[in-house]
Amino acid sequence: MAAYIFRRLLLIIPTLLGIMIFNFVLVQFVPGGPVEQVLAQMQGQGDVTAGFSGGGNDVGEETFGSSSEYVGARGLPKEFIEELEREFGFDKPPLERFLNMMWNYMRLDFGESYFRSISVIDLVLEKMPVSITLGLWSTVIAYLISIPLGIRKAVNDGTSFDTWTSAIIIVAYAIPGFLFAILLLVLFAGGSYWQIFPLRGLTSDNWENLSLLGKIGDYFWHIALPVGASTISAFATLTLLTKNSFLDEIKKQYVMTARAKGLSEKKVLYGHVFRNAMLIVIAGLPGVFIGVFFGGSIIIETIFSLDGLGRLGFEAAVQRDYPVIFGTLFLSSIIGMVMQIVSDLMYVFVDPRIDFEKREG
């Protein structure tokens, strides 16, 4: 197993390199880079070269004409544009910029945000508690509800319980997460009905002054609605996946043999069927967590005014904050691939009969 893990870890390197190359090349063709963002912000603000150290007072003597590659650069001195390019590192060719970036990432140097004056790693650590909250609790709640419910639906397949719970699950799956989040706000956050939960934030303003129990209660009070909104789609998928997996196992010969030996239904389900049926469910655990952690939280964070990694990535893409974009992409790619290895280890933990080394051989 150690050799298999080592090979998987080595495979991360070319995979990660391919992801970074593809996205770096793609970014080169996207209009509106950070220099253009700065120029756009400076339009109509009077003396745009007031803070320029090398332009002197003759700001209008050497300007760009209609051939300027930057929209909105007319009337600005060439030296000012070149200074901006040097500041953002665009005075170097793309290949050199990419190699420098990857070399810095190998040394865990992710640079500094173009527009926030803070290092990327500090920015990620600052936003991570929100994303961990959504990803962790949504995954835990989804599994705690879906697995028992899926097992019961499989045991009672075709009954009225199975029918009406399937109807609820299908409706829940059909409701978009953002629409359910808005519904929760309207109903329970003072929108039009009850003011039960807070409208925004992860904690209250007086959180530091609360007791330990008060802090725990305040924390769960704030995350109740966003976690509920981010859980609904994963809950529906996992329940049906668990049910179908159990149905496939229940129909197999070893289950009938176990029952013929006089084993109780509970012993058959949880002593024999559970281990085999849970393989495919456990395999989806990393995907569910990573999906909520990095992707599904963008809309939820925006609706509930939570400042997490999803919102950070979206704002960085809009602002063309390349250090933040590539830094978070690098980290999320590594985390995603490591979680896939963890998924394989969980396979072996649930069923020790699985040997990935023999399968590869």
UniProtKB/TrEMBL annotation:
Record field: transmembrane: 9-30, 132-151, 163-189, 219-242, 277-304, 324-350
Alphabetized PROSITE patterns for the sequence: ABC_TM1
ABC transmembrane type-1 domain location: 128-347
The keyword Metal-binding is annotated on this UniProt entry: no
InterPro entries according to UniProt: MetI-like, MetI-like_sf
Localization, UniProt: Cell inner membrane; Cell membrane
Keywords associated with the record: Cell inner membrane, Cell membrane, Membrane, Transmembrane, Transmembrane helix, Transport
GO cellular component, one term: plasma membrane
Gene Ontology terms describing biological process: microcin transport; transmembrane transport
Keyword Zinc in annotation: no
Membrane topology qualifier: Multi-pass membrane protein
Family: Belongs to the binding-protein-dependent transport system permease family.
Protein name: Microcin C transport system permease protein
